[in-house]
Each structure stands twice: as C-alpha cells, then as structure tokens.
Design a protein that fits this description.
Strand content: 15-25%
Radius of gyration: 17 Å
Shape: globular
Number of helices: 6
Largest sheet: 7 strands, mixed
Order of helices and strands: EHEEHEHEEHHEH
Helix content: 25-40%
Strand order of the largest sheet: 3-2-1-4-6-5-7
Number of strands: 7
C-alpha cells in the first residue's frame, strides 16, 4: 500500500514579492508602486497574495522607506548588484531560515504581475512533497513562468553558493540542478488574460489599468 504523501500547509509558506529589478523598459523606478487606478500595483498583488499565505515579505533594493505604508519586512538582495530574480528568491529563503525556522518553503511572486491565480499557492503546494526539496514552477499556455515558484528553504545554502560563485543568474539554470515540477494554469476567468500577464512596458501598464477599471465598473 502506498504511503500517503505529507501535505504542505499555509503556515509553512512565506510569500515573497520580487520587486528588486530596475524596471528599465518602464523607464526606471518601482513598477510595483505605479498607480493602476486609485491604488498601486503592489496593493493589487497584496490583495491576491494575502488570501493565500499567512506572512509576506517584499524583496526590494534601495531605501526601504518608500514601502513603509505597506508595513512589510523589506529585504534587499543578499548577493550581487541587481542580480536578478534568483537573488530575490535567495533573499526570501534567507529571511525564512533566519526569522521563521518553522517555514519550509517560500513562494515567489513577481511585483509586476497583478492577475496571478488566486489558487496559485494551493496548486503549487499540492504538487510537491512536504518532506523532499522539490521546486514547483508555474506555467500557462505552454510557457514556463519561473519567477512564480515554490522554493524549499532547504535549498538556501546551495542557491547562495551558486550566486556567490558567479554561476548563471537565470532561474532555470539553477532549477535544473534539482528536482522540479511544472504546474499549469488556465487563463484568468475574470479578465481573459494570461494569469501571468506582466506590466513590462507602458502599454502593458495601460492594459492593467483598463482591465482593473472594467472589473470595477
């Protein structure tokens, strides 16, 4: 008889919003703080994520005071100079290991993607065992979205060494070293958009604003 797999629970998950990039295609600044119709993109993301995890941290570089109104721990990249999303994942894993030893996994969320699935964390958690370090990555329309992942805290030291020794900052280069699973998501039924539509450019930001406006009206 096959043993029942131990399930991950929400209290073992730390949410980490990755907002540490330089937003070059948006003209610089913090994309997550851009107004999307009376509120910031970060407000929208927090509304979605706070219903899925019990604790959230924000990965961002520079002066943390610009995020003071959100009352979140703001943790910078622990390695490199804007070393990419893997450095943000490492920030979350490092915080969890130091401050929340009861947390076993960190779920990473892009700070420019406001329509990510409302069942993202549940689906990622149900796809991996609780007692083995398996990474889960989200996908949609046959495209992988490696910034949206579930990361075992047990991989923190390996990721730190990987980045400190100058290995590739590409997420999949690191993921390929470990066991991983892909979890596919359908289009957002409320918007018709890909659930991982992100605001990289001004035109994308306009789409986000129009979509949110149509949902309110």
């Amino acid at each position: 008889m096959m043993a029942k797999r131990t399930a991950l629970t929400v209290d073992k998950i730390l949410g980490c919003i990755l907002a540490g990039g330089q937003s070059r295609r948006m003209g610089g600044g913090d994309k997550s703080l851009l107004d999307v119709g009376g509120k910031s993109m970060l407000d929208v993301i927090l509304d979605r994520l706070s219903a899925q995890v019990s604790e959230i941290v924000l990965n961002a570089n520079g002066d943390p005071d610009r995020f003071a109104k959100f009352h979140l721990p703001v943790i910078p990249d622990p390695v490199g100079d804007y070393a990419g999303p893997l450095a943000g994942v490492l920030a979350g894993l490092t915080h969890a290991k130091a401050q929340r030893p009861d947390v076993s996994h960190v779920v990473s969320i892009a700070g420019d993607t406001p329509f990510f699935p409302t069942n993202l964390v549940d689906r990622l958690c149900s796809s991996v065992p609780a007692d083995k370090p398996v990474i889960a990555l989200a996908s949609s329309s046959s495209k992988l979205h490696p910034v949206f992942g579930l990361w075992p805290v047990a991989l923190k030291d390996d990721l730190h060494t990987w980045l400190e020794t100058g290995q590739s900052g590409k997420v999949l280069a690191f993921v390929d070293r470990h066991d991983s699973v892909e979890v596919s998501f359908d289009p957002d039924p409320a918007t018709g958009l890909d659930p991982f539509f992100n605001a990289n450019k001004p035109d994308d930001l306009a789409t986000v604003r129009d979509t949110l406006s149509s949902r309110i009206s």
